[in-house]
Amino acid sequence: ARVEHPFHVIKNLFRHRKVRYKGLAKNRAQLKVLFGLANLVLAKPALLA
C-alpha cells in the first residue's frame, strides 16, 4: 500500500525501531523529522528528473 512505504523507509533505512526518548514531545519531534526525511527520500527521483 502507498501508506506503508514511508514506514518501510523509516524502519529499514533510518533503523527506527523503538522510541529513543522519554516524553511524548521529543518522540513526536523525532518522528516528524524522520517522516520529513522519508518524504525527501521518496521524492528524490521526481526532484532530480
Automatic annotation (TrEMBL):
GO MF terms, alphabetically ordered: DNA binding; transposase activity
Domain named Transposase IS4-like: residues: 1-40
Pfam families: DDE_Tnp_1
Name this polypeptide is given: Transposase, IS5 family
Example of a GO biological process term: DNA transposition
